[in-house]
Amino acid sequence: MIVKVLETRHTKVGTLRRGVIFKPDMESDAVAKVINDLLKAKPAPIKKLTKAQAEKEKAEITSLAEADVKGATPTPIEALKAAELALSEKDADLLSVKSELENADKALAEKDAKIESLEKQLADKGAAK
User: Fold this and answer.
1) pLDDT (tens digit, 9 = 90+) per residue, 73-128?
2) Could you count the other beta carbons within 10 Å of the beta carbon of residue 3?
3) Is beta strand 2-5 parallel, antiparallel or unpaired with respect to 46-49?
4) What percentage of the chain carries pLDDT values higher than 70?
5) Distance (Å, rounded) from C-alpha 5 to C-alpha 51?
């Protein structure tokens, strides 16, 4: 039998905390008596669960074990490293954009020089006629 504690109860066999799902040792007379009495109570502070219900409810519970929460909230050092990495990526992007801008400026200056050269040739041809 698997049970879920709906309300915290202090019993002869220990404290049953709300929300806990467990399989009581029904071979123990004291445990069996406490569990059966609690199941018969109105309203019952515990309820029986099938194995499928227990697995479903356990899957919905968020674990607070250190391994599960590690990395959820970065430490100040982790946050600083992430910020430095993001900043270095932004710096690289900025350098790339600056380089592209410089290349575009050079190309524009070359095109301006060519336009001036063509205008001068056109003016020379007009003056020669």
Assistant:
1) 777 888 888 889 888 888 888 988 999 999 999 999 999 999 999 999 888 887 77
2) 21
3) antiparallel
4) 89
5) 15
- C-beta of residue 7 within 8 angstroms of C-beta of residue 45: yes
Is 61 within 8 Å of 17 (Cβ atoms)?
Answer: no
pLDDT value of residue 62: 63
Helix/strand/coil percentages in the chain, nearest 5: 60, 10, 25
DSSP string computed for 8-25: -EEETTEEE-TT-EE---
CA atoms within 13 A on the CB side of 86: 6
Beta strands in 1-91 (DSSP E): 2-5, 9-11, 14-16, 21-22, 46-49
CA distance 105 to 113: 12
